[in-house]
Amino acid sequence: MASAPIDLRSDTVTRPTPGMRRAMAEAEVGDDVYGEDPTVRALEARVAERLGLEAALFVPSGTQGNQIAIGVHTRPGEEVILEEASHPFHFENGAMGALWGVQPRTVVGQRGLLTPAQIQTAFRGHDDHLPRSRLVILENTHNRGGGTVWKPEVFAAVVATARAAGLSVHLDGARLFNAEVAAGVPASSWARLTDSTTVCFSKGLGAPVGSVLSGSEAFVAEARRLRKRLGGGMRQAGILAAACLYALDHHLSRLAEDHENARVLAHRLAQIPGVRLELDRVETNMVYADVPVEAAPLVSRLRVAGLLVNSVGPRTLRLVCHLDVDRAGCERAADILRASLDTK
To answer: Quick one: CA torsion of 43, 44, 47, 53, rounded to 10 degrees?
Structure first.
C-alpha cells in the first residue's frame, strides 16, 4: 500500500488526535445561541483571560471573527488601514466592502509588519473630502510575511500611534499562539493592547473548527449580534469548543516542535541547488522557498511524488509544518523536492 503523502500545504490540514476526539465526544453541551453551552462558555472565559481582555465569543472561523470585528468597529464609508498582504485584505473575498461598506487602505510592510510612521502616513486626518480612518488591523504571526512575529515593543508603539490618531486596533491573531511560543512571552503581551483580537484553533493547535474573538464586554455584546447576522450562531457547539480546550491543554507548548521542524526543513531546502530562501525569515512554522522552475508544474510533480505544498508566486513555494508531520517527514519532504528538481 502506498504511504500517505506528506502534506505541508497548511497547518489547517491537521486531523483531531484520539484524545481530542474523546474530549469532543464527552463534552457537556447546551444551546449556545441561548448562551447555555457550558463548554463554549468555559472556552470563551479561558481565552479572554489568556489574552488579557474582558470577554470573548466563539465563532466558526477566523475570517468570520475578523469580519465581525470590522463590522463592530466601523461604519459604511470609513476606511481600514492594514498591511497589503494581510489576511483580511488578501484572503477574505472582499468581505469588508461587501459586508460593511468600508474600504481598505493598504500599506506595504516589512515581512508584513508596519511601523508607527506608516500608521501616521496612512491616517487620513479630518478632511471632509476624504474617507474617515477608523480602524487599524495588525496580523501576528503574519502569514504572507513568512510567519513573522511582532516584537512586543514595536507592536506597542504601533498601537500607541493608532490610539493617538483616534483609531481602533484589531489583531488578527490566527497564529498568535505560535507567536507566543516563538517569542517566549504571553499572548496577552499583544492582545491586551488591542480593542479586539481573534485567535484560531484550527491551524497549529489542530482543532477541526473554531476561532475566538475577544474584546471588551460591550464589544463582545455587539459582536454576538453580528455573529447572528452572519449565520454564525451555533447550537450544541460545545462539541467543537471541547476540541479547542483540549488544544490549549495539550497542543500549545508543542508548537515549538513545529518551529524547530521548519528550521530543519529550511536548512535542508537551502542545500538544494537553485533553491533560495532566507533562513532568518523562518521564525515559526512556515518556510517560503524560491525555486529555479515554474512553481505550478513543480507542485503537480511533487504531488505525484508524495509531497503536497502550495505555490504562492510564479517560482515560490510555501511549506507549513504542523503536528501531523514529524521531523522525519520534513526531512523526507526536502528529499522529494530535491529529486523532483533533479528530474525537471
So the answer is: -160
Of 228, 249, 270, at which residue does a domain stop?
249
The model's confidence at residue 344, banded by pLDDT at 50, 70 and 90, is low
Residues 272, 298 within the same domain: yes
What does the pLDDT look like over 182-213, one tens digit per residue? 999 999 999 999 999 999 999 999 999 999 99
Q: 236 and 265: one domain? A: no
Residue at 61: amino acid letter: S
Inter-helix orientation angle 18-25/238-250, to 10°: 140
Q: Which amino acid is at 335?
A: D
35 Ramachandran zone, left/alpha/beta (phi>0; psi -120 to 50): left
Whether pTM > 0.90 for this model: the answer is yes
Domain membership flag for residue 219:
yes
Cβ proximity of 206 and 173 under 8 Å: no
